[in-house]
Fold this sequence. Notes:
The structure is a single chain. This protein is mainly β. Helix content is 5%, strand content 38%. The strands form two sheets. A five-stranded mixed sheet has the order 4-1-7-8-9, with no helix packed on it. A four-stranded antiparallel sheet has the order 3-2-5-6. The longest helix has 6 residues, at 55-60. The two termini are 18 Å apart.
Amino acid sequence: IFAGFVLSGLKTSASVSVDLVASDGSLVHVGAFYVLGGEAEMPWAYERIYKIDMTDAAKKVNLAEGETFEFRLTAKKFDGTPLQLNMPAPVYIKRQSGDDNDILILPLTKTNNLPAKVIVRKGTRIVFQP
Length: 130
C-alpha cells in the first residue's frame, strides 16, 4: 500500500513528515519527503504521483481492507520553523502481490483539490471510494 502525493511549490524548502492516524488517535510514522524551493520560484506541480510505502505502518495498526483512515502531515521549513501546508489530500495506491498494475483509490468528496491532470502508469485501475 502506498500513500500518493501530488506535490507542488511551497515557495520554501521544507521537510514533510507523514503519519498514519490510527483508530485510537495514535500516530504511526509512515515516512518523510523533502521539497526544495524559495521565494522567487514560479508556480509548479508534478503531474505524476509521488509514492511513499505505508505497508509497515498499516500492519502496525492492523488496518483492514476498506477501512477508512487519515494522514497527518507535519511540515517544517529548512530553518526548523513550522510550515502550514496547502497540499491536496493524499491518495491511496495498492498493488496486489504478483501484479504489475496499480490500483489508484480516489476518495469521493464534494470538494477535490487535486490538479486537473494527474498521470498514472499504463494499466492503472481507478477506484472511487466514499
